[in-house]
Write a structure and sequence with these properties.
mainly alpha; two-stranded antiparallel ribbon; Four Helix Bundle (Hemerythrin (Met), subunit A); 4 strands; Arc Repressor Mutant, subunit A; two-stranded antiparallel sheet
């Protein structure tokens, strides 16, 4: 049953009619509802969104679930997230909303294909990250760290070449896992991997979010912490997967 709540303090509060949130996909449901509010111009370009505490209350979800939803919207360019400074409506129209970029000029040509590919990455690369944290040599870690460092330089220079560095980062982690079968499986889907990475980095926000996630993965690997490495990789891949789902349902 739909509920009506207010976002913002009086007298400028906003009434939002919320659809029931399905417990199995909380972050996706929140992301979709927030995306609808943003598209209906609930807030002006550049305007700061309500605080996380207020949004959590409105959607009746925890802070981690809300942040997952916000990261998804940041990935597709609907909002900008500032560390310690809240979230803001994007000043510019998201290129992703003009046409379904994820379904053009590539080997992944349907929503089902993209979803299945994302699921396969989650299963494969999450475990690869854990094994890399256990088995990577000093040289393996140096190689991974090199790609992360070059990603930062790429962003500072306008993100040129970031997608190639992104791909090499994931392949370097596979090499550090010291499992030839898993490494071969990742190389086997290299074309699809390159396509998804390239399309996910159309916006600078996508590159910045990917860089932050890659740093977290790298730190877990350097600390030889398999559980943290798996968690960081899973967080990274799921953020982009949720962003894709928002886009598909908007086209």
């Amino acid at each position: 049953m739909a509920a009506t709540r207010r976002i913002g303090k009086q007298p400028n509060s906003t009434t939002v009619t919320l659809k029931p949130v399905q417990r199995t996909t909380l972050s996706e449901q929140v992301a979709m509802q927030l995306a609808s509010e943003l598209e209906s111009k609930r807030w002006a370009p550049g305007e700061k969104l309500p605080s996380e505490a207020e949004l959590c209350q409105v959607f009746n979800v925890g802070r981690s679930t809300l942040r997952e939803a916000l990261k998804s919207l940041s990935f597709i360019g609907l909002i900008r997230m500032r560390a310690g400074g809240g979230s803001y409506v994007s000043d510019q129209h998201s290129k992703y909303m003009d046409k379904p970029l994820l379904l053009t000029k590539g080997v992944l040509n349907s929503e089902q294909e993209v979803n299945e590919f994302c699921e396969a990455r989650l299963l494969l690369e999450t475990e690869i990250a854990g094994l890399c944290a256990e088995r990577a040599t000093v040289q393996d870690i140096r190689n991974i760290e090199k790609f992360v460092r070059e990603m930062k330089s790429s962003i500072d220079g306008g993100s040129e070449g970031f997608s190639d560095l992104d791909l090499n980062f994931h392949l370097a982690i596979a090499a550090g896992a010291k499992n030839d079968v898993l490494a071969a499986l990742l190389k086997h889907i290299r074309t699809g991997l390159q396509e998804v990475i390239t399309k996910s980095l159309v916006l600078t926000a996508g590159s910045e979010l990917a860089y932050q996630h890659h740093r977290a993965i790298l730190e877990a690997i350097k600390q030889k912490n398999p559980a943290a490495a798996r968690k960081a990789m899973r967080t990274h891949l799921r953020a982009f997967q949720r962003g894709y789902k928002v886009l598909f349902r908007k086209h």
